[in-house]
Amino acid sequence: MARIAGDEEETTVSDGGKPMRLWGGRFESGPADALARLSVSVHFDWRLVPYDLMASRAHARVLNRAGLLTDEELERMIGALDDLETACKTGEFRPTVADEDVHTALERGLLERLGSLGGKLRAGRSRNDQIATDLRLYLRDNVRAIISRLVEVETALMAQAATHADTAAPGMTHLQHAQPVSFGHQLLAHVHAFARDIDRLIDWDKRAAVSPLGSGALAGSSLPLDPVVVAEELGFTSAAPNSMDAVADRDFAAEFLFDAAMIGIHLSRLGEEIVLWASQEFRWIEMDDAYSTGSSIMPQKKNPDVAELARGKSGRLIGNLMSMLTVLKGLPLTYNRDLQEDKEPVFDTVDTLLLVLPAVAGLVSTMRVNTARMSATASDGFALATDLAELLVRKGVAFRDAHEAVGHLVVYCQVNDVDLGEVSDEDLAKVSPHLTPDVRDVLNVPGALAARKAHGGTAPDRVRDQLAALREAVDAQAAWASGS
Ligand code: ARG
What average pLDDT does the chain have? Predict the structure, then answer.
């Protein structure tokens, strides 16, 4: 499908121009100012211009095939639509406040170019099927852009993971030292979360790839149009089988917003970890100057604003989903003007992700890992206690007894302020007869990591296998997004 995402810019609406409405016929007076101000959406739906024009070209061809536009009229129509697109891009054609929405503004532009011929394009379609079509086209395009940016985050995390497959870190539960892990393993955990997000978006696209065009206001058209041909021309995989559903359905928008909120949550969790890692207490990483900020008063400060904004922006991503669900709840079939409220949350979510993702990718790819400090504390907090207990199990001790024996040893160590490996043979035996001197063999971090070598474990060799599999999956995701 055609890629346009990323081209749009902030819309300024001029206040000149003659009011142009698509529905003036049966009204004696114009709308009250208050209504006009409430009703107008062109200042935010203007970004749909390329998609609206794309749909207009497809519609013009269908009118031509139906015998409702001559070949010569079609040619002039397409020429004018192309010209209008250029004029919109250069800014020579701008919406005015008198244009209610993007469709109104573009019809004005068409009438300016074609005179009465411009009025023929509206036959058989309504803004109701148009806007549903435009939003689907816009989102399908932008979802591909979002996936490409997400792939950059995955790639940055994977590059760090490749460097740090053998770097031991304190693995945590409840933010307490639990068991040592490969830092690469921890980084790849975040990649899996983003990979699921992308898979969700790719799956979303199947349901988004249904064309509403041809549904008209709600009931289809009595004109001999062919929605299936239009769908194909616009890169959809099918045409909506029910015109009422087609103009009322915004599941695709809500579902996109859920997928995006989930991405926000994953960015937030990664952001939170990075904030911790960069803190004086952890000092696991040093952020690159290009991706950290200073303080206006404290000259020494280096702040993790990128990570914090990634965490903070998740608030609006979740909020946008809530807005959409609330708008949709309780709407009778079919189109209701409430549906105009679908666009700002969607646009804000797209903009937010396209803003945050490159910064997070940059932060991750440039951060320097303080491996010495990270690994030095990997076994702190008696983090090898489980390794001891599991050794006893391998020697035939019931896990329940092994757990208790090692628990007693931990208390002994705490009371005497020593580490697990520092207890004498004698004292080991006093704590429990199971604790023979050879148990010390498992009290080393590299051994503890290497021992967790089953599928999904943190053994560095397994991390490298995991990384190879992820690289393949991420390549496939990148290829999908770029249409290759
Ligand atoms: N601007 C509207 C929207 O965003 C589309 C126009 C449909 N308006 C109407 N009165 N049927 O949903």
Answer: 94
